Every structure is written in C-alpha cells, then in structure tokens.
Amino acid sequence: MPPRSLLLLATFGLEIVECGGTLAKHARAGWDVHAAVLLSRPEAQPQIQRASQILGVQTRFLNFSYGEVYPDVESKRALVRVIRETRPDIVITQDPEHSFTDLDPDRREAMILYLEALSLAGRDFAVEACGGLPPHQVHHIYYMTPEHPNCVVDISDVYHLKMKALDELGYQLAFTAKVLKRQMSDASLRAVVPNYEEVKDNDLELGRALHREMEKALALAHGIAGHSGAALGEAYRREGYFKLEYLL
C-alpha cells in the first residue's frame, strides 16, 4: 500500500510553520507531506525551503503575483494539477470564515480559488491541460487557524521542530517586527517580549521573539490551557461531519 499523502495549500510561506507541528508529525509517521505556496518573494523562498526540510515537507512555489490572485480558469488549472499530482488523502488550507475578514492581501480570492480547485480536481475538468492526470477527489479538508475549531493535534513531541523551522523564516520575522512596531507602542511590545530592550533595534531578533511568544501562546491556548487533552496544540476545523461507528 503506498504511503498516504497530505497537502497544504498555503497562501504565504509562514503557514508551513503555523501548522508545522501537524505536518512534522505526519512526515514522521511515513506520510508524503506536500505544500504548495501561492505567494512568496524570491528572497524568501530559500528560507521557506529550509523550514520545509526541517519539518519533512516537500514544498513547491506557484509564483502567483501579489494583488493578482483570481479564481480564473488558468489559476484553477494550476491548483488542480498540484492536487492531482500529489493525490492527497487530506488537504489543509486556510479557514474560509477567517479569510474573508483577514486584511492580508489576496486571502479572499485565494480561498475561493482553493475551494474551486478542490471541487474541480475530482471532476473531468482540464484533464489534457493538466498533463493527462486522472481526477482525484479529496475527502478530508482541515482548515488551519480556524475561528471555530473542532479538533486539536497534540504537537508537544515536535514543537521543537516547529520552532527550528520558524527560525529559518528571516524575511517573515523581520517583516512582522516592522509591522508591529508601527502598530504597537514600546510599552505593549515590552509586555510581550521579555528581552525587548535587547532586541528592539534588530528587526530579525525582535520578529523571532514575537513569533515565538505568539506560537507558544496559541499552542498553550489550544492545549493545556484549553483543556483539550493536549499539552501544546494546533487547532483545526474539519469540513463536514465526523463519521463514527460509536460515540467515543
């Protein structure tokens, strides 16, 4: 029996780390774990690849352009081809409920594109244009960082890999620091970052410290602080019903 396959449809490279614990656990268990990144700057791609390698993820870049993401036929074909090539049992992608109020660029259009591509991948759409690859229907979709989660993955045993992968994303870390320094006061940032005075003038180190605090806070909130049964958790919303033979 061939290994099972998981595909992350990521709008930006940071999503690989945001659900990195789950990806790493599946890779360790022998799954083929893939990620397709819609938008990424050329200078960030080597960093994203290094983070992916730490987590055991095979990552490709689709090189769409910022502000130009549309669910048009050409874009759908590109995503359908990825789905048919990787033939995932599970797809992880952003949460539609969150994406439509997210002020990151292209989130809304990307979500429509992903859902259209997932629907079309299982039909007889563009078979020749997609290299003759046969249709593939995805039965299990999980939305990452959801507004209303209904399941949690315990990532305690791979959390160190998630943090190691995060450290590789220097472009994203520095970007986060620059944005938050414009949006928040020194007093606010000092309350979040214990060594703020040491790193406040270094965007890379400040961004690293901020992301480490944010990721730990989320993992604890969905883990031990959320009484989920996990110590450090990554939360997801599974699309559709859970099929059970008996109540657990």
Summarize this, please?
The protein is α/β, with parallel strands linked by helices and 248 residues long. It has helices at 14-18, 20-28, 45-55, 73-86, 96-99, 107-121, 159-167, 170-183, 186-192, 196-199, 203-221, and strands at residues 5-10, 32-37, 58-61, 90-94, 140-144, 151-154, 233-238.
Tags for this entry?
single chain, 248 residues, alpha/beta, Rossmann fold, 11 helices, 15% strand, globular
Structure, explained:
This protein is 45% helix and 15% strand. It has 248 residues and is α/β, with parallel strands linked by helices. It has two domains: 149 residues, 3-Layer(aba) Sandwich (Rossmann fold), CATH 3.40.50; 74 residues, no CATH class. The protein contains eleven helices and seven strands. Strands 3-2-1-4-5-7-6 form a seven-stranded mixed beta sheet, with helices on both faces.
CATH class (first level) name of the largest domain? Alpha Beta
CATH-level-4 superfamily name of the largest domain: LmbE-like
Number of discrete helical segments: 11
CATH topology (fold) name of the largest domain: Rossmann fold
Structural class comes to: alpha/beta
* Unreliable spans: none
How confident is the prediction overall: mean pLDDT?
95
**Overall strand count:** 7
The helix/strand series, from N terminus to C terminus, equals: EHHEHEHEHHEEHHHHHE
Largest sheet: 7 strands, mixed
* Overall body shape: globular
**How many structural domains in the coordinates?**
2
Task: State the assembly state of the protein chains.
Answer: single chain
| Rg computed from alpha carbons, rounded to a whole number of angstroms | 18 Å
Indicate the CATH architecture of the largest domain. Answer: 3-Layer(aba) Sandwich
The first-to-last residue Cα distance is 28 Å
Per DSSP, what share of the residues sits in E-state strands of 2 or more residues?
A: 5-15%
Residue share in helix: 40-55%
Instruction: Output the strand order for the largest sheet.
Output: 3-2-1-4-5-7-6
